[in-house]
Amino acid sequence: MSEPRPGGGPTVLRMILGRQLQALREKAGMSYEQAAAAIVSSPYTVRRMERAEGGLKPLTVRSLLMAYGITDPGEIDTFLALARDASKPGWWHSYDDVLPSWFRTFIGLEEAATLIRGYDPHSIPGLLQTPDYARASVRTGFPDASDDEAGRRVDLRLARQHILARPDPPKLWLIIDETALRRPATTTGPVVMRAQLDTLIQAAGRPGITIQVLPFTAGLHPAMYGPFRIFRFEAHQQPDIVYSESMTSAHYIDKPDETAAYAQALDRISAQAAPGDDTATLLHNIRKEIKEI
Predict the structure, then answer these.
(1) Phi and psi torsions of 246, nearest 5°
(2) How far apart are CA 269 and CA 255, in angstroms?
């Protein structure tokens, strides 16, 4: 067994270890049912472990490794140490009361990625939102939320932004549709959007952050269906992961041919968008058109 490489936080570690367990099971020629029978568990449990959909209990992992023919104590101890690290809760678990289960993986991927690329057609990306814009967005998306719940959702969104202030921040390359830059955050005036554009201008000037604007004049493009992210990691055993979402769920894609299709689409959108060097000028021009009242 090749040793799983540490790094990337608990979410990515679970994914790496899950892929390792799947590879070992397949190498041993065992089905889900056979693996489950060997550890007196259910096929559902084995599937969940391989898909990184839950914690990795050391005793269960040890039993699986032995069932797959891994008996070297050093290999088992290395695997179990990483399994324990992978089962540690991330900081975002303190927001479980307002965090959909399907979005928890997203935050873990965001936290662990070394490169985040994406396209946003409808709104300003969460990592770059101002507090006022975030509040307006939450109020629009969750109109029935209490003040306390709305505040918690805003706090969670802003807390995610700490990754950009780390000593080792991920590289961020986002393409924002011009529609999102011109759509008012509120109906009460332009103040929120002017401040949001100021923040984007500042972000575009920071090292490691590339923002491109996809203008109206670009016409049709390959990602008309909605927003998505591509996460890349330092851990070599974890391939790129694509995230896309609907109103009530999300999809995580790691099959190389599918992630490659998203990457190619993003490359084409990037070619249609204005160059990153022009972003500050474009944002300044849009800001000037938002009149004070």
Answers:
(1) -115, -165
(2) 21
Torsion on CA atoms 6, 256, 226, 118, rounded to nearest 10: 50
What digits encode the pLDDT tens for the residues 132-182? 999 999 999 999 999 999 999 999 999 999 999 999 999 999 999 999 999
Copy the structure tokens of residue 147: 């003040």
pLDDT recorded at residue 146: 96
pTM, full prediction: 0.85
Report how far apart, in Å, the C-alpha atoms of 71 and of each of 2, 62, 75, 121, 200 are: 14, 9, 8, 51, 54
Structure tokens at 64: 């699986």
pLDDT of residue 8: 57
Place of tokens 């839950």: 54
Residues 135 and 154: beta-carbon distance below 8 Å: yes
Residues of the chain with pLDDT under 70: 1-8, 187-188, 224, 235-237, 292-293
Residue 95 CB contacts under 8 Å (≥ 6 apart), including other chains: 152, 155, 156, 159
Q: In what order do the strands lie in the sheet with 228-232?
A: 209-214, 171-177, 115-120, 228-232, 241-245, 250-253
Residue 44's pLDDT is 92
Check: CB of residue 15 under 8 Å from CB of residue 240: no
Angle, alpha carbons 202-173-259 (nearest 5°): 165
Q: Would you state the pLDDT for residue 173?
A: 97
Dump the DSSP string for 32-94: HHHHHHHTTS-HHHHHHHHTT-S---HHHHHHHHHHTT---HHHHHHHHHHHHHHTSPPGGGG
- How many angstroms separate the CA atoms of 25 and 263, rounded? 31
